[in-house]
């Protein structure tokens, strides 16, 4: 798709653009000229602290961005989202993931069914913890394997990894997603089929990977001595397609419902979160919901200027629309949050990677950024070189915890020094003068210093956000995830698109279903392109 210059119809758009064109200040200068900058450009909400002062922003910028948010009717859109409007217009559905984490007594039909489902989850989870759920040979379940992919995998896997600290001793929770058989075989090779329970997690119950893995798991359990009549002791499912789950062979009483008003990538708060509840207990799961609900309240109530998800979205909008940024790095300085970037990749890119507006008209501006990242400090010894000296602009979110996440306090101090120093380095950089002086002070000759110094120059003046949790726990993690969910919604509104469909993934599935027969003996269609035919022939040949 060719976009030569972003164009918006917002009345304030030209003002924002000329504000950018006149931009001359550096980040360092902004800090010098306003001693209260950090207080002015930071806020706390739902137990999270956001420092967005290391961005190319002034009060004037924020004023213009706020105007754009109003012109996009962002507050009205948020009210519509939370109130159950059909925000997913191409699938004619609301997106009521916020109803999954309501607090107090249920007050809507959606909250009623959510409460019923939590009540069904609770004894099931307890029976696993208490060793009361027995496998076919009468032994308690020691291992639970979640079979699901995309939204039925990434969220629960990320949360279970992040909250390892509050994990129950038993059962152990594992995840299988890929259609590469190595995934399932690697997981089950250390497990006992007599004491393993599978959760088949699929909103649609029609996803190829999940179906094939579930079939293979059933085979494995039966090879372990389980009669067909006892399979219900080893398989439960989570789905909105109860009929398909029953037809697959899951006992009806073992099916936990979800609903079409919950998008797959927004579903970890539903029964799709069973692996989370099993790993950390129902209390922990409820705390996760509580944290997310606190962010929902903030999102619903705070004015644009102090609304954390709205501000984060407006900052991304500003950089994407006016500065040409198309990359977003997520850098959690927390080993246990290593899965956060992968989770956010689906949340953000499956939601915002769109080329038409809500009415199907081509957009005249860029949309979703490429999101990637890894846990700090590991990334520093890998791609941070590009962040500091590369020619591509990258937006960076640093995420850290004030309190240590392990008994090794000293490690935490190093971890957070690095986290803080990285955003400082992006801001300040290193001048030619400083690089030269450092070389001379280190004993280099004047000529060597002159040759080497340009390689050591770091331009700086590069933006970043820093998000701090007081402590990594279910509540703060819930708030953090909800923050990014809402940021995505705001960007969808500002960009004029529907963030709740994902038609782009369908063509690959359709074509995959046509390539499969060609790899299993059917003749290749004449009209296929040469590359596709050659690849199929090579795989069929079985050697290069
Ligand atoms: O292929 C994309 C997708 O539809 C995601 O949106 C979804 O999270 C994933 O597949 C899994 O879908 P399901 O839960 O229906 O198996």
UniProtKB/TrEMBL annotation:
CDD domains referenced in this protein's UniProt entry, alphabetically: SIS_PGI_1, SIS_PGI_2
Isomerase as UniProt keyword: yes
Active-site annotation: 350, 381, 509
Coiled coil: none
Gene Ontology BP term (one): gluconeogenesis
GO cellular component: cytosol
Protein name as catalogued: Glucose-6-phosphate isomerase
InterPro entries in the cross-refs: G6P_Isomerase, G6P_Isomerase_C, Phosphoglucose_isomerase_CS, SIS_dom_sf, SIS_PGI_1, SIS_PGI_2
Subcellular location: Cytoplasm
Gene3D superfamilies: 1.10.1390.10, Glucose-6-phosphate isomerase like protein, domain 1 (3.40.50.10490)
